[in-house]
Structures are given as C-alpha cells and as structure tokens.
Amino acid sequence: MTAHSTTPSDERGGLGDTLDLSAFFRLVGEVEAAPPDQAAIANASRPLSWWRRQWRRLWDTSSVRKAVLLLLLATAWHLYARHLNNPLALPDVLATARALWQEFRSGELPLRILMSLKILFAGYFIGVACAALLSIAAMTSRLAGDLLETLTTMLNPLPAIALLPLALLWFGIGTFSIIFVIVHAVLWPITLNVLAGFSSISPTLKLVGRNYGLSGPRFAARILIPAAFPSVVAGLKNGWACAWRTLIAAELVFGVSSGSGGLGWFIYEKKNQLETDAVFAGFCTVIIIGILFERCVFYPLERRTLHRWGMRA
Amino acid sequence: MNVAASQPLLAAEDVSITYSAGTRLVTAVSNISFEVQPADRLVLLGPSGCGKSTLLKAVAGFLKPSRGRILLDGTLIQGPSPERLMVFQEFDQLLPWKTLHENVVFALTSTGRAHRREAKELAMAYLGKVNLAPFAHAYPHALSGGMKQRGAIARCLAMKPAVLLMDEPFAALDALTRQEMQRELLALWEEIRFTMLFVTHSIPEALVLGNRIALLSSHPGRITAEVRVEDAWQSGERKAVHRSLHDKIQEMLFDGALDYTI
Known about the structure:
Strand content of chain A: under 5%
Helix content of chain A: over 70%
Radius of gyration of chain B: 19 Å
Distance between the termini of chain A: 54 Å
Distance between the termini of chain B: 46 Å
Structural class of chain B: alpha/beta
Largest sheet of chain B: 6 strands, mixed
Strand content of chain B: 15-25%
Number of helices of chain B: 8
Structural class of chain A: mainly alpha
Number of strands of chain A: 0
Low-confidence stretches of chain A: 1-16
Shape of chain B: globular
Number of helices of chain A: 13
Largest sheet of chain A: none
Order of helices and strands of chain B: EEEHEEEHHHEHEHEEHH
Oligomer: heterodimer
Mean pLDDT of chain B: 89
Number of strands of chain B: 10
Shape of chain A: flat
Helix content of chain B: 25-40%
Radius of gyration of chain A: 31 Å
C-alpha cells in the first residue's frame, strides 16, 4: 500500500494515510516581525495637496471630462467658422448662441419644441406599447414568436422615412402620418432588442422560476422581463434615438399645415430664409433635448436597476 | 423498521430516460430504481455523462421519463413543484435583480408558502443558518461563488421541501470552499434533518455527504451498486474504512483503474 503516499490529499478528503511522513515536513518557526518603520510608512502614502485632491475629483467625473471635450469641439468649430468667414455657410458659435437665444425669447422655438415633443411622445409611447404587446404575444406561442422574428427581420432595415409617401397617401398630410412613421421607426428596434434579451436568458433562471411554481403571465412578469431588462433598456434607448431622427426627417420632408410644424419644420423654414445661424440653433436644440432626455430618464433608470444588479453587459 | 420502509418518501421505479439528439435517440439512463426514506442523504455518484443530472431533472419534474415512473409520497411526479427544489451547479441561480433576502422572500411568497411579513422573518432566519445574515441585503453579483451557493441552499431550505435536489452544487467551487460547504451542509442536516438527493462525480464528496451512495455506470446510466455508507462506518476505524470505501468505489466506477500518479 505504499503507493498511497503520493495520493493528492484533496482527492481523498485529507483522510486515509497511516504512514509517518513527518520526515518530509520541515517545520518552520514563526518569523518575528520587524517593527514597522513609521517614517517609511508615512512617506509611502502622503495625503495629496488640497489642489491636487480637487483636481483629481473633478477629472474622475465623466460628465466633467465630457464637458471639457464638448468645449474643445465648440472651440474648433468656432475657430474654423471664423477662419471661413462665411456666416451663410457656417455661422460661428456666438452667432448660433445668439440665434438660439433670440428664437427662444421670441417664443417661436419653445412652440416648435412643444409641437415636436407632443408628436414624438405620442409616436414613442404607441411604438413602445405595440412592441410590448407583440413581445408578450411572442412569449406565449412559438408561432407568434416566429412571425414576430420574421417581421422584425423584414421591417427593421426598412427606413421609416421610406414609408412617408405611403402614410401621406393613407392618412393625408398631418400629425397622424408622422406618428405612423415614428411608430414604425420605434417598434422594430425595440422588438429586436427585447427578442434578443429573451433568447439570452440563462436556462438556469428559467428552471428556477418553474421550480418555484411560476408559469404563464407570472413567469413572464417575475422572471422573463426582469432577466431581459438590460436588453429592454437598450431597446428603449435605441427606439428613442430612432424616434427623434425620424421625426426631424419627416418634418423636413413636408411642413405640417398652417405653420404648426415642429423643430424639423423650423430648420427647413430657416434654411429657406437663409438664416443659417437659426438652422444651427435648431440643430443644437435637437441635440440638447436628446442629451437631457438621456441624462434625466435613461441614466437614472440604468443607475437604479442595471448598475445596482450588476447586470450591465 | 419495516413499517417505516413500507412506503418510501421518494421512489423511482424502473425509470428510463431517452431523448432525441439530432437524428439519433440517446438513452441517458435506463432501468433505474431507488428509494429514498425521510432524512435520507442519497448520493448519485457516477462519471461525467452517466445521466445522473438528467435523472435528477426528472425527479424535479423538468422532464418526463420515457419509461417507468417516479413517485413522491406515492403520487406520480408530473411537473416541477416547490415540493422538490433544486440547487443548481451554476452560480446564476439567484435572481440578480433581487438581494439575497429578497430572493428567499420571493421563493416563499410566489409559492404562497408565507405572507410577506412572515416570509421576511423566515428568510432572515434561514440566511442566518447558512451564515449569510450580514450579507442579506447584498445583490448576488457582489457575492463570492460559495456565498451564492449558500444563498441558493437557504432559499430552498426555507421552503421546507419534501426533497432537496442538489445537482453538483459545489462542483464549480475551489477545493477549500467545497470542503467548507460540505461541512456546513452536514451541520445543517444535523439541525433540520431534511431529505436530500445529491448528484456528484467526486468520490470523497459522496463519502462525506451520503448515508447511502448509488453508483451509476455510463452509456447508458445504470445503477450498478448501492453502498450503505452509514452502516459501513461501523465496521472499523474511520480512516481505514474511508480508504477502503474510496478504493472499492473507484474500482467499481472505473474498472479497477487505480491511478495515483500525479
């Protein structure tokens, strides 16, 4: 039985050896710790000076870094515009800011923003609701799932704006046509993300849900949807961007009747009047609203859910 | 003794499980029979791919045997139920969007075992039993593998299932943690006396945890022997019995290929 002396102890649960193997063990006495060198320790980690601490804190904030980058981009734009010296083609930052302020004070821009947001929210929420309904249908039956997958593959690459002529034919010029196009723009990207989310749920989690007696809508609500939540949020963000893009593009193509168009129409109108600085002010407004929405809606939502759960991909 | 054994808590009767893989029919396990009495710790021990996990899934009700039947308290098992709860090998079995405490509360309330207030107290008590009380309000992603498995065990035990099904729950842990978990599981058993069906491919783990071991051969999985470990311990000095059992089982599982080369 001498062969046992080489048995890895782990494999045998640390039991089983009766041989005296102490000859192979060299016992090492406890090493007395040297008294710590206080001066060396103090030197190794000194507190930073106040200025450097503040600087570190600022620079570690991503929004500060991004603001600095924005400032640099704006400076580059401004310098190039000055160099070009052609306000009709490229107004500088100050002219744009001035136009933004004027259009805002005159009340035209707020009105346009309001018009755009109304249509945007209507289209977005109808799109999200449709996506939710279709996804639920896809969860309940395999055939519905196949249908939705096919539809998504077919319709997602179709640019929403390409549907505009058809929408005009069906619904005429007006708000309804734009909402129709936005719903199309929002629906498929969200559905695509949600479907991808469902198919990437860990099989173990599904078994756990079934083991604890969940089935049908309760299984969907308590297991499937939270487990797919990272993809759902990604879909909502993606859908939001698509909605914005489509809205502005649609408004550029046709002005809504009786001068009640939104931001896209504002940009189009100002271009016709050769007020390039106002056109740029329109662009800036679109960008600013996009950033605000991201910071005020999606970012807190992600912080409160995905970050906290460690579920960010 | 005979009276207690008249109706086992859990019984598998001549169970075969076949599934189709591509164009072929694969038999995972065939003609399996075993009985589990209350407070038994039956270990299904066999090499990888012998169908022991498949068998456990059938006991859980996740899949149906193609032949034979599995009975709990004399009733045919027809689907998953909180009466037979499974602890999985994977670390992601805790719901990541709930804290440890919420995970246990979720189990108790979604099955209607307890109302919210009661569930909260029960959950805390069982997290205490697995030494996780200080981490009760942490989300799973912040915990180590061993802690996640302990949380999963607490979630199952709080439900007081008729049978606890363990599918290699410690296989993905490091060796030291695994030994610690085995010790803790035994201590829990001493305290609560639950009934356990434990699947593993590690002989030392089977010897530590089981009062009985069923040895499975592979392709297809069949029970080749049943070892009454608890009774075997009485037959001599513990170390010697352990070594002999280990070697005997090794021999039976791997056709006598005793290999101690490292």
